[in-house]
């Protein structure tokens, strides 16, 4: 399956999710083909750190501007795309079987998601192939008194043609450490809240 992790807004967690999902898939025996179409190359760089540190399993991430590589249809394919490369983003969206959209808990992020859905519809115009669009709250507040994550999830549930994944990823230091060390959250600290929530999240996506 070809999965594109995308959103128009920066900093929503696309690269963090792309990286952790790829390692989760490799750890569960899947073959993974990974692409970074964002000129920032965060996904590519974190995989490079992982290889420099000799962490197993090895993740290769191909850095591309446009979709010039052959897709391996036997693999789970992960694309990290950003708005800085609209052409690459459009190409990835046209290839996708599924788009995963991380949304931080705020009204501007909901607006940006609405706008991104319009981009997706435009990119897929004239195509009949089914496309699953999954949205979820990333960087959710860990304090139960803060309502923004619930409000954001409720707003996302109103959007047409999307599935709201009922498994949030919370705002946790371990996700930042994951990116600086080239290790997935469940490799950094198995049994931690971040590790458990990520396992539930990834299992729901690849059941
Ligand atoms: N659930 C989380 N908890 C804490 N920090 C997070 C979480 N998700 C992402 N971050 C941090 O937020 C920052 C942005 O995340 P990331 O780079 O994955 O976003 P992005 O959408 O790929 O950004 P860009 O648009 O710049 O490519 C990073 O510092 C990352 O470590
Ligand atoms: Mg990124």
Key words describing this protein structure:
43% helix; alpha/beta; binds magnesium ion; 207 residues; Rossmann fold
Describe the structure in your own words.
- By secondary structure, the protein is α/β, with parallel strands linked by helices.
- The protein has one domain: Rossmann fold (3-Layer(aba) Sandwich).
- 43% of the residues lie in helices and 15% in strands.
- It is built from 8 helices and 7 strands; from the N terminus they run βαβαββαβαβαβααα.
- It has helices at 14-27, 42-52, 86-95, 107-123, 148-157, 173-181, 185-188, 193-205; strands at residues 2-5, 32-36, 61-63, 76-80, 98-103, 132-137, 163-164.
- It has a 7-stranded parallel sheet, sandwiched between helices.
- The longest helix has 17 residues, at 107-123.
- The two termini are 12 Å apart.
- The mean pLDDT is 97.
- The site of adenosine-5'-triphosphate (ATP) has 19 residues, from α1 and α6.
Write a concise synopsis of the structure shown.
The chain has helices at residues 14-27, 42-52, 86-95, 107-123, 148-157, 173-181, 185-188, 193-205, and strands at 2-5, 32-36, 61-63, 76-80, 98-103, 132-137, 163-164.
Name the CATH class: Alpha Beta
Bound molecules: adenosine-5'-triphosphate, magnesium ion
Average residue-wise pLDDT: 97
Order of neighbouring strands in the sheet with most strands: 3-2-4-1-5-6-7
Q: What is the annotated CATH architecture?
A: 3-Layer(aba) Sandwich
The class by helix and strand makeup works out as alpha/beta
Quaternary state reads single chain
Unreliable runs? none
Radius of gyration: 16 Å
Strand residue content: 5-15%
The CATH superfamily label reads P-loop containing nucleotide triphosphate hydrolases
Let me know the number of strands: 7
Number of domains: 1
Our count of helices gives 8
